[in-house]
Amino acid sequence: MRLGLLLTLPVANAFECSRAAFQGILPTNISASVAYATTVPENSTFQVPESNIAFPTSPVLLRRVCAVQINITSSASSAYSLGLFLPDEDEWNERLLAVGGGGYAGGIDFVSMVCPSFNNGNGYKLRTKAAGVCYGFAVAATDTGHNSTLEDGSWALDKEKLTDWSYRAMHGSVVLAKLILSAYYESSSLSFSYFSGCATGGRQGLKEIEMYPDDFDGVLVGDPAWWSSHLQPWTVKVGLNNLPTTAPHHIPPELFPVIGVEVVRQCDPQDGLVDGIVSDPAGCQFIPEALMCGSNVSFTSHSNASCLTGPQIETLYKIYGPYYETNQTFIFPGLLPGSENQWTNILGQATPNTIGTDYIRYFLFDDPSWNVYTYNFSVVHAADEAQPGNSSITNFDFAPFYRRGGKLIHYHGLADGLIPPESSDYFFRQLLKTLVPKGITVDSFYRLFHVPGMEHCTGTSSNAPWYFGGAIQANTLGVRPGTVSGTPGFPDAEHDVLLALMRWTEEGRAPERVVATKWRSDTLLDEVWRQRPICPYPKRARYCGYGDPDDADSWECL
Ligand SMILES: *[C@@H]1O[C@H](CO)[C@@H](O)[C@H](O)[C@H]1NC(C)=O
Ligand SMILES: *[C@@H]1O[C@H](CO)[C@@H](O)[C@H](O)[C@H]1NC(C)=O
Ligand SMILES: *[C@@H]1O[C@H](CO)[C@@H](O)[C@H](O)[C@H]1NC(C)=O
Ligand SMILES: *[C@@H]1O[C@H](CO)[C@@H](O)[C@H](O)[C@H]1NC(C)=O
Ligand SMILES: *[C@@H]1O[C@H](CO)[C@@H](O)[C@H](O)[C@H]1NC(C)=O
Ligand SMILES: *[C@@H]1O[C@H](CO)[C@@H](O)[C@H](O)[C@H]1NC(C)=O
Ligand SMILES: *[C@@H]1O[C@H](CO)[C@@H](O)[C@H](O)[C@H]1NC(C)=O
């Protein structure tokens, strides 16, 4: 029984937060060792180990947790780490949340773990009435079995490490985390398990559903990098389309903003409302020739011009257009108009992004000296054949997850300049093609939301409402890393997609829309500027034609 305020003060658990205590409960059929288990006091900074080069930021913790890191041997040449933040028992919401990684990063993303481990008082079905922030989860993450930064895939020469990154580390971490929770929390037990991840994290969530449908009850995936064998070759191909930098067809990064301005000029009004936001980029008939230079611009002066030459326009078509093999076989969609602000990552360097080339060198051909200029379609065929690490999703039969009552929310920022949003639409169609013939009503367990104006996982360059509590989004809000959780000021399932997922999973109320928010300053969280619904695909938000367009209720999902 919980009575009055006194009982809401943090109470130490009977289970000690110490290395020895955790070491004592590890199962004997795995080889694992506890690196540390330490109590992090309320309002203090959790010092991330200096050796974590992937996610070096040390978050501020607003509530007390037991922080644990466990090293698990996965083969003779590989081991992965599980990181856990465990709130005190009376602050625990009896749920597990596993958070995903990003790119090829090898390291535990502690900043993404910190906030979900606290409850927000007004949150969802919390056991405690303690005031505070966040949700009250026990939170888990894995380093995915190697040590590297986001764009470095050279570790993948070791195929055991590759298997860890592809799926083994996440699954093993979830299984062990559940076991630990049952020992750590002595008088309460786990009721639901969730996942939240973006990009590689999104791929991890889908991979879990594909291979281990029992691991999670609810899965939240953003901008998923789910099709490794095509996405990574496309990353190389689209980069090569704009190279070498000395060629007449090269579009220098200085021109990306010029293109972006023209996209807004043409595509913003086409969606029915002039607000600087390209809400329907796939529906825009963008005419790049509007950027064509007149006779007074030469090749040598084109980098500081505000127009494009014929060969540059051809490159632009290749960036936006889908990538087909010569015989019309579809390989991958192109980037959408409105993504130009993020192009420097994969189009603005002297070589294609290593997210693409490292896949071919270290995942696929095991040849660090592979010359990127020898790239051709045969790479895609080789990748499809080999499926290195089995990192791609290839089995769209998510029926086992559906049958156990699992729920999947998937979203993609339409201004994503790293992973083409239409790869998410393609995934959506694969799921329909596989499950509809089985008599499954797909939208009863899976929904995809497009987010107009949102870049890769977080942020916007067009002041579009982009924030809804998606994976890693809170890390970019507020001034102190990790102190923001949920949707500040709107701690409810209408404005917070993780709460929406919980409501769907636990109460069966499917999200018909989620309201996204933009503050005047997303850092200061000063004043709410705009709120708009994001809608389950293929519906999209339409302005009703009257009312304040910055008010979510002036929009409908149609
Ligand atoms: C932590 O900070 C909050 C907000 O400033 C404060 O109310 C609370 O008393 C602090 N707790 C401790 C243990 O210092
Ligand atoms: C990761 O590698 C860097 C060097 O690249 C090293 O400084 C660091 O200690 C390593 N971290 C771990 C966890 O091994
Ligand atoms: C994990 O354990 C393995 C041996 O099983 C060791 O080689 C590796 O350095 C350890 N990793 C960490 C991060 O402690
Ligand atoms: C572009 O810049 C170069 C030097 O960076 C300069 O010589 C040239 O005149 C400039 N062209 C235009 C059209 O401004
Ligand atoms: C053409 O398409 C098929 C797939 O339909 C593929 O297997 C084949 O290798 C492709 N390429 C060529 C050059 O025929
Ligand atoms: C593509 O590249 C592979 C390997 O570099 C080479 O063997 C093959 O001949 C190339 N194919 C074409 C059509 O150029
Ligand atoms: C990938 O999947 C295939 C087919 O199921 C299997 O034979 C292979 O062992 C798997 N490889 C890895 C690394 O999981």
From TrEMBL:
It is an enzyme of class 3 (hydrolase). Keywords: Calcium, Disulfide bond, Hydrolase, Metal-binding, Serine esterase, Signal. The keyword Transferase does not apply. InterPro entries: AB_hydrolase_fold, Tannase/feruloyl_esterase. SUPFAM superfamilies: alpha/beta-Hydrolases. Its EC number is 3.1.1.-. It holds the Pfam family Tannase. One of its GO terms (molecular function) is metal ion binding. It comes from the Eukaryota. The keyword Hydrolase applies. Belongs to the tannase family. This is Carboxylic ester hydrolase. It comes from Zasmidium cellare ATCC 36951.
